[in-house]
Design a protein that fits this description.
With about 350 residues, the chain is mainly α. Helices cover about 65% and strands about 0% of the residues. It is built from twelve helices and no strands. Helix 6 runs parallel beside helix 12 and helix 10 crosses helix 11.
Length: about 350
Amino acid sequence: MFDYLELLTIENVKYIALLVAQILAIMLPLFGAVAYLTLAERKVIGWMQLRVGPSTVGPWGLGQPIADAVKLMFKEVVMPGVANKATYLIAPIMVFVPALMAWAVIPFDKGIVMSDINLGVMYLLAVSSLGIYGILLAGWASNSKYPFLGAVRSGAQMVSYEVSMGLVVLSVILLSGSMNLTEVVENQRGMWHMIPLFPMFIVFIISILAETNRAPFDLPEAEAELVAGYNVEYGAMGFALFFLGEYANMILMSAMTAVLFMGGWLPPIDIAPFNMIPGFLWFFAKIAFVLFVFLWTRATFPRYRYDQLMRLGWKIFLPFTLIWLVGQASFMKFVMGV
């Protein structure tokens, strides 16, 4: 019989302790960012609509996310009697966990990345696509019409926009010549990818709005038609996990945008005083900018109809990205000789 105690060496214990420390160093600030992104959203949209937003819990309303978390933690868990109980309980976890796993390959600064793998781009695409399984399971396990319709809508929406999103990412891989995220960022010294690939950048921004079910593509949760869609039968911590998963995905997609198109940790101009600012601060500033676009879009644009959403994905984005990718590959092969 294998003696597992042989694995308990000082080197292995140090390795595991370092791994746990790295995970906590990423996860704890991320939880805080998710909590306060909800406050920032309510504040920004409030200002855009000439309201003050949350302002009574703590100074400037800073205690509001904590109050919301405590309320959801102590609410009674009510499960529909006809639900498939095991699947019903697992579904919110399957939405939340993939949004955390993807951060393993995101480079925060030069040399500051948990796992600098060569297929980082493919890992990101694969892991960010797993959350939809949690939504589909939640809609099915609730055994109710509105959650089921919301889940089906979300699945169709995810498939529709992932195709064109994948083609956009392929254009970035072609330009940088690598699927390693650190090398993708280093390739943007001198010029960010968003400049030569500006039309694809716009397609990517619109696609991540659809991927995260955010306005104006929040049709899986359309209150007027589906009450709240796939999570209508959830309350307490189950609902909180869906909520946290959605906001964690927003931050993840913003980080992807910063890495693939906006130079990651690189300053906009490589001269003083811009290059004196630490790279991770530039990275966080770019994430904050893309998150502001999420909030601004929600406050500005009305919700699309479902047929409009499908037409945009299949009849406009898919042909456009396909033609662009073929044109870019041909240009790089026959004109640039790459």
